[in-house]
């Protein structure tokens, strides 16, 4: 992973589009609009402690979780930044039950945008890193018509771009458009995202696992065995592993992407489908992890091959360094064989 100097996000995206002979530049514009929304959200996150933005709105989102004000701010900001660019035909957000149509005042375009406006929102008040996750598809409905639910419910494999922004000690935007994974750090003095890492490769094997261990009691026996295995000592396989879990998926994923690691949010006896959302969290992260040479599965099959049925469906996820993900799949499969 080479350190780069002075390449703006805008220029990098345009250079990337040149690799496609028929590219119209629309995707570049779309990503540029998204990065503008990210800058505004970043600013707001940074001053969250200073203004009356902290605390609950008192409302619940479609998942029955309490919505914080910054979630709503980020959700609205993304819609405001994206609805008039003429690149999108429809959007969907973790914070809204139905698909979001483009107002009739604006022309529709050929892309579809799904997003988690603010990920890790339980961490807002504690000044811990939070983020935005996005996923972009080409429409399958006819051009120049309103986008549809079918446009939103495409296989993860069909994503044309995906990314996340971490609002942390600095603001960093990571994206893939199918040619590797690239990271850009926001320079707050002149408001540009500058290339920090080009073509990030996640280590094939790691020494870090990330999971909410408080749910241990409810896990699959194979997963319990796997975690015990990681905690055992064996110098050859660099065990015991370190445990790192922040509770903001973007932040846990970003660290693991750079250092190597396995992130898990499994199904358990209380939540048959785990917690995380396929369309807003798991698909975009799986696309990025695979583009970086890692693996992302629901324990059995690739996340990107899961046929979505509903907008807000959840899926278990195991993703990160390839060898580690293969190992947890093996532990769970062995236990299933014993049971069968
Ligand atoms: P969100 O803030 O968008 O609802 O997502 C929170 C998610 C994810 O970021 C994190 O990995 C996970 O919830 C943490 O859940 P637990 O507190 O159950 O570990
Ligand atoms: Mn989230
Ligand atoms: Mn969220």
Report the average pLDDT across residues: 93
Class of secondary structure makeup:
alpha+beta
Question: How many structural domains?
Answer: 2
The H-and-E topology, N to C, reads as: EHHEEHEEEEHEEEEEHEHEHEEH
What can you see in these coordinates?
- The structure is a single chain.
- This protein has helices at 9-17, 26-46, 69-82, 149-152, 221-231, 249-259, 278-291, 322-339, and strands at 2-3, 56-60, 66-68, 88-93, 100-101, 111-119, 130-138, 161-167, 171-176, 181-187, 192-198, 208-210, 242-243, 262-265, 295-297, 317-320.
- With 340 residues, it is of the alpha+beta class.
- It folds into two domains: 9-197, Fructose-1,6-Bisphosphatase, subunit A, domain 1 (Fructose-1,6-Bisphosphatase, Chain A, domain 1, 2-Layer Sandwich), CATH 3.30.540; 208-339, D-Maltodextrin-Binding Protein, domain 2 (3-Layer(aba) Sandwich).
- The longest helix has 21 residues, at 26-46.
- The N and C termini lie far apart (44 Å).
- The mean pLDDT is 93.
């Amino acid at each position: 992973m080479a350190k780069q100097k002075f390449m703006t996000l805008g220029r990098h995206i345009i250079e990337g589009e040149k690799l496609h002979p028929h590219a119209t530049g629309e995707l570049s514009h779309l990503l540029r609009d998204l990065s503008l929304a990210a800058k505004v959200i970043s600013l707001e996150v940074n001053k969250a402690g200073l203004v009356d933005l902290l605390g609950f709105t008192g409302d619940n989102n479609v998942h029955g979780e309490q919505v914080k004000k910054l979630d709503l701010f980020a959700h609205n900001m993304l819609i405001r930044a994206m609805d008039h660019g003429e690149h999108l035909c429809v959007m969907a957000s973790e914070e809204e039950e139905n698909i979001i149509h483009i107002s009739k005042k604006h022309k529709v375009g050929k892309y579809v945008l799904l997003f988690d406006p603010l990920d890790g929102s339980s961490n807002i008040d504690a000044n811990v890193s939070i983020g935005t996750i996005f996923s972009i598809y080409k429409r399958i409905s006819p051009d120049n018509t309103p986008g549809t639910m079918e446009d939103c419910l495409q296989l993860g494999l069909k994503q044309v771009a995906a990314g996340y922004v971490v609002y942390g000690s600095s603001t960093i935007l990571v994206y893939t458009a199918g040619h590797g994974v690239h990271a850009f750090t926001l320079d707050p003095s002149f408001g540009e995202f500058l290339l920090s890492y080009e073509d990030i490769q996640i280590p094939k094997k790691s020494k870090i696992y990330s999971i909410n261990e408080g749910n241990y009691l409810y896990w699959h026996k194979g997963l319990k065995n796997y975690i015990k295995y990681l905690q055992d000592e064996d110098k050859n396989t660099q065990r015991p592993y370190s445990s790192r879990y922040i509770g903001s998926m973007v932040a846990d994923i970003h660290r693991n992407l750079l250092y190597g690691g396995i992130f898990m949010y499994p199904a358990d006896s209380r939540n048959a489908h785990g917690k995380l959302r396929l369309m807003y969290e798991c698909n975009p992260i799986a696309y990025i992890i695979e583009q970086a040479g890692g693996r992302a599965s629901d324990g059995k099959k690739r996340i990107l091959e899961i046929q979505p049925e509903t907008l807000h469906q959840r899926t278990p996820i195991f993703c990160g360094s390839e060898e580690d993900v293969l190992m947890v799949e093996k532990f769970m499969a062995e236990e299933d064989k014993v049971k069968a």
